[in-house]
Write a structure and sequence with these properties.
Number of strands: 0
Strand content: under 5%
Radius of gyration: 23 Å
Order of helices and strands: HHHH
Helix content: over 70%
Shape: elongated
Structural class: mainly alpha
Distance between the termini: 58 Å
Length: 98
């Protein structure tokens, strides 16, 4: 193996290693925060639209029921996530340092 090939292999390996380090230290935590914030916003929207699913009376439930066919794919997962209170409370508690 020639010296030029060894140098190219080393540079390729170093580039992959640095890309993984950058992703692990900087971009990955940022993506997690953005995804959690988006999920919290979606949860708030769904709870505002469908509070009857959890026994909270709402005067606008007649109008928000029209949204159900459009949000059907997300509704079941959202309802399951909120009924599992342990994971929901645990996830919300991670935002605060008690």
């Amino acid at each position: 193996m020639r010296l030029a090939e060894r140098i190219d292999r080393f540079r390729t390996t170093l580039k992959q290693w640095l890309r993984g380090l950058y992703h692990g230290m900087i971009t990955h935590p940022a993506y997690e925060k953005v995804e959690k914030e988006a999920e919290d916003t979606e949860d708030a929207f769904m709870l505002a639209c469908f509070p009857d699913a959890f026994g909270i009376p709402s005067p606008v439930s007649y109008y928000t029921a029209e949204l159900l066919p459009y949000l059907e794919s997300e509704f079941e997962g959202w309802e399951r996530r909120l009924w599992d209170r342990d994971s929901y409370v645990e996830r919300k508690g991670q935002q605060y340092h008690f």
